[in-house]
Inverse folding.
């Protein structure tokens, strides 16, 4: 049994220790907002926050995050995530939507450390999150928008 | 069921019979599928289903059924808007549901109406009359119901805001209050559609219906489903296309905790386990010996060389106007270029997956299906059922770009085979493809080579244009092969055989070699390579002393819409204004799927040849702009998608093996590579046409032409090799 704290809730998970965290969410806990895209930390669709930092959960063995505080897109109380979600809606960012939970959690990591990111800050922080629909123009706009809301 | 609802049901069936093409069968459905199954228990629930696309419930819930797949392009928004417009209901009141698979009710009218599917940027245009008619019929039916209830003339009533109003008496009833009465009435005939001047919804950038669920993790894709007892399957496939299993050592796989079964299927060997990770470990533990004797031993470099040779020989004639060969002779000024394009994978962010529940007399499938009734037919055949026994639940797709509209229904077929082979487990099967499976899995945009020769007159205008195109046919051997004429796959020559420029002598020839690598349409299909070849070549012709924009403009005779987008893109981009050294501006245009797009790209090139696309100005004419915001988003996305191919896209094969495996070696566009994009929509009253694909074709040639402007170096093959641009 491995103890996980997900979105503030404690879970005891019975999974082989090498199971990537992603599949613990998806197949064991039923938190399916976190997506599988590549299995190699190459696309960012599986991004979650571990102790406040964005991490790719598809390559992170569950045993490595025992007792860590993990936030997924299903977290409803996070102020930065909420601001980003509202900005994403306002800017109509999503097309297919599959990568967007990962985009939002990477953006949350950026805004947590940089309340006023420039375009190049955004490009650097978000460079590991792929969007095949190429919603990038709007992702940039939504991050600026959320940052402004959070500063206000 | 009560007498009333039974009466309603008969009425609707009768109504359906009267409604004619496009609204062929009415049906009566209580809300929701669970409720539908328990129909006997919801007797008082007089849901009005005036046609296959709309349900109005007594509680005023209004549901639009969308027959097309929502894969990001916005059909769950654009199509319901057409219904809402005619029905006179506020946008926020509309709920959206995917329609079930049914070729009769939900066939794509742009595909002849007998196949349900999404592609060719046809969703909006084939639904334009159908869905407005659906909304208008319901509106008039509800008005008739109110007229009967209040004993007044229908002409004295008005539908507004989801209610029917009798201004003279001040009476008002919500649609929900009128469904029971409407059920007693025959369907209205000769319903009149609103005039464009009366539109309240069409033309507005109303919010997408799927936005909120896509940012809070609630949006459901097929791989997100979980059913009691569901098992997950991964398949080991042969390393070459057409390979077969020779021997399997499965003991180690079976020993992996969680693995429930290892079964051979025609496509390979499936490992079925309690979850993804067990299935993955099980598959990794398989030892399969493959028989590659019947497989394709293709190497893409050799293929490209062969195609270049083939392009020197005459092919099947796709267009022949005037005497191009004759005109080419005896003209002093001629130009010839060749262009080459690699295989490309669709690589949607959501890898292929689906869930199949197979029973003795029924098969249920949950998938982001882009061609529901093709999938249904294949599943039925494998399962030994009739198509009517196969239910397809269409979920959102995490991108598709053509990949999930496969005439062979490849991944659906695999899942049904696995379900069949594991019938004794009596479990729903969730088939998952890994990213490696996706990149190596074939069904690529075919490798193509073009050779174009032109003769110019004294003023530099093209007198003759001969284009030879070499590449695998997408349509041959599929149910769509009927679209081929005289051996010509129209998707291999679209935009070339109908070259928009005023060239008096035109000849287009095609070679369609059979290679054994599975190919498929890839967002904008033939236009992905044809627009590049023709739009770079026309730039080459212009480069003999003329401005590329003015040159195109002069040659667009009787092409007002292409000329319109060309002029708009040029003027909005500041065409002609000088740029500093190392920067360049390029233009390209393409009509695809009856929409017209021109794009101007601005690039900055470094001395080492590396470059960045800074800005793209896009002009689009897609007829009536139903939802301008969705159109802009599709242009932005199409530009990014096309740019990914221009900068990075390349699937190569060596000895039949695909050399790429994941996003690490098949890179997509990253945010830092995305230019600023400005989209300008041409105001139009023409019938609306699609926007999912037409943004793609012009971007790669626009960038190549901009690179020429900046460096004087011509790009004639994709992806662009920066080393060739070095100063």
């Amino acid at each position: 049994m491995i103890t996980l704290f997900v979105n503030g809730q404690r879970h005891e998970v019975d999974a082989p220790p090498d199971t990537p965290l992603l599949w613990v969410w998806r197949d064991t806990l039923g938190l399916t907002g976190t997506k599988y895209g590549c299995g190699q930390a190459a696309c960012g669709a599986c991004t979650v926050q571990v102790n406040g930092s964005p991490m790719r959960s598809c390559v992170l063995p569950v045993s490595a995050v025992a007792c860590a505080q993990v936030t997924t897109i299903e977290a409803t109380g996070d102020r930065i995530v909420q601001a980003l979600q509202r900005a994403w809606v306002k800017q109509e960012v999503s097309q297919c939507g599959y990568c967007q939970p990962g985009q939002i959690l990477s953006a949350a990591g950026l805004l947590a450390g940089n309340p006023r990111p420039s375009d190049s800050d955004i490009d650097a922080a978000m460079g590991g999150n792929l969007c095949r629909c190429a919603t990038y123009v709007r992702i940039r706009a939504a991050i600026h928008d959320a940052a402004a809301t959070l500063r206000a | 069921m009560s007498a009333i609802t039974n009466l309603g049901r008969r009425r609707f069936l009768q109504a359906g019979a009267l409604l004619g093409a496009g609204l062929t069968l009415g049906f009566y459905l209580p809300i929701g599928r669970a409720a539908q199954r328990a129909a006997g228990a919801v007797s008082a629930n007089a849901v009005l289903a005036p046609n296959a696309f709309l349900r109005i419930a007594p509680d005023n819930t209004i549901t639009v059924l969308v027959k097309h797949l929502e894969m990001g392009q916005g059909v769950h928004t654009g199509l319901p808007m057409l219904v809402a417009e005619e029905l006179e209901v506020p946008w926020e009141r509309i709920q959206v549901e995917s329609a079930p698979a049914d070729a009769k009710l939900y066939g794509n009218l742009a595909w002849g109406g007998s196949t349900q599917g999404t592609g060719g940027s046809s969703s909006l245009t084939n639904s334009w009359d159908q869905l407005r008619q659906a909304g208008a019929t319901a509106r008039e039916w509800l008005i008739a119901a109110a007229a009967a209830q209040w004993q007044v003339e229908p002409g004295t009533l008005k539908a507004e805001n989801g209610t029917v109003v009798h201004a003279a008496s001040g009476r008002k009833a919500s649609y929900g209050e009128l469904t029971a009465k409407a059920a007693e009435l025959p369907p209205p005939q000769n319903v009149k559609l609103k005039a464009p001047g009366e539109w309240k919804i069409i033309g507005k950038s109303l919010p997408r219906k799927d936005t909120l669920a896509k940012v809070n993790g609630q949006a459901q894709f097929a791989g997100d489903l979980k059913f009691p007892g569901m098992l997950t399957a991964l398949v080991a496939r042969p390393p070459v296309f057409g390979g077969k299993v020779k021997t399997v050592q499965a003991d180690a796989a079976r020993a992996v905790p969680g693995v429930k079964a290892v079964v051979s299927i025609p496509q390979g060997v499936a490992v079925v386990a309690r979850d993804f990770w067990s299935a993955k470990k099980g598959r990794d533990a398989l030892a399969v010996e493959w028989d590659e004797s019947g497989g394709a031993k293709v190497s893409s470099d050799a293929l490209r060389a062969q195609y270049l040779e083939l392009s020197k020989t005459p092919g099947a004639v796709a267009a022949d106007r005037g005497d191009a060969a004759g005109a080419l002779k005896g003209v002093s000024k001629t130009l010839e270029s060749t262009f080459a394009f690699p295989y490309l994978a669709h690589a949607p962010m959501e890898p292929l997956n689906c869930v199949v529940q197979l029973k003795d007399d029924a098969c249920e499938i949950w998938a982001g299906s882009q061609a529901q009734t093709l999938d249904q037919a294949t599943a039925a055949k494998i399962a030994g059922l009739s198509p009517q026994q196969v239910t397809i639940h269409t979920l959102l797709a995490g991108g598709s770009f053509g990949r999930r509209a496969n005439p062979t229904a490849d991944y659906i077929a695999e899942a049904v085979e696995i379900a069949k082979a594991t019938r004794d487990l009596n479990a729903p099967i969730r088939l998952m493809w890994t990213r490696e499976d996706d990149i190596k899995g074939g069904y690529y945009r075919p490798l193509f080579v073009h050779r174009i020769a032109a003769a110019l007159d004294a003023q530099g205008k093209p007198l003759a244009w001969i284009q030879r195109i070499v590449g695998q046919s997408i349509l041959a051997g599929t149910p769509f092969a009927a679209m081929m004429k005289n051996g010509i796959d129209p998707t291999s020559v679209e935009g070339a055989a109908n070259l928009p420029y005023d060239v008096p002598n035109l000849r287009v020839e095609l070679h369609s070699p059979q290679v054994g690598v599975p190919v498929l349409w890839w967002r904008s299909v033939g236009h992905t390579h044809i627009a590049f070849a023709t739009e770079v070549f026309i730039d080459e012709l212009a480069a003999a002393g003329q401005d590329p924009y003015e040159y195109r403009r002069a040659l667009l005779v009787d092409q007002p819409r292409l000329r319109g987008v060309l002029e708009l893109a040029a003027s909005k981009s500041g065409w002609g204004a000088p740029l500093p050294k190392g920067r360049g501006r390029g233009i390209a245009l393409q009509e695809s799927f009856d929409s017209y797009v021109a794009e101007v790209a601005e690039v900055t090139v470094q001395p080492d040849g590396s470059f960045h696309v800074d800005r793209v100005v896009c002009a689009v004419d897609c007829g009536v702009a139903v939802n301008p915001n969705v159109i802009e988003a599709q242009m932005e996305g199409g530009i990014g998608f096309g740019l990914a191919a221009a900068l990075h896209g390349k699937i190569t094969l060596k000895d039949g093996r695909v050399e790429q495996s994941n996003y690490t070696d098949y890179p997509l566009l990253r945010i830092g590579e995305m230019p600023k994009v400005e989209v300008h929509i041409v105001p139009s009253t023409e019938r609306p046409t699609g926007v999912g694909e037409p943004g793609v074709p012009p971007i790669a040639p626009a960038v190549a032409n901009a690179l020429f402007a900046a460096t004087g170096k011509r790009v004639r093959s994709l992806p662009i090799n920066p080393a060739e641009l070095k100063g």
The two ends of chain A are 44 Å apart (CA to CA).
